Amino acid sequence: MQTRSWLKVSYVEAFGIEAFTRDLENTTLAESLGIEGANEGDLYAAMDCLYERQDVIEKRLAAKHLQEGGRVFYDLSSSYFEGQK
Question: What pTM value is reported for the model?
């Protein structure tokens, strides 16, 4: 489940919400996700809802999965950094 979620987010980041919405019609992904007939507005609304609850979601995930002294790994493969020496 975690991998599928990451793949969906990566696709949207790489190609945009418009392409994601368009491509839903040509795949079984919408059926698998239970979002048949979703349009751009529906997907933007879902993203807005998640953004508004981001802090609560992160805190609950941290409380459930993190332990004192534990390690957290971040996927920075899509990140962009600038700096000076």
Answer: 0.54
> Contact 55/66 with Cβ under 8 angstroms?
no
Report residue 38 CA to chain centroid gap: 16
Task: Let me know: does 77 contact 9? Beta carbons within 8 Å.
Answer: no
User: How far apart are alpha carbons 74 and 76 in whole angstroms?
Assistant: 6
3-class secondary structure, 7: helix
- Alpha-carbon span 35 to 39, nearest angstrom: 9
- Is 80 exceeded by the pLDDT of residue 50? yes
Longest Cα–Cα distance of the chain, Å, equals 50
Q: Which two tokens stand for residue 42?
A: 């529906």
Q: How far apart are CA 45 and CA 60, in angstroms?
A: 22
Confidence (pLDDT) at 1: 42
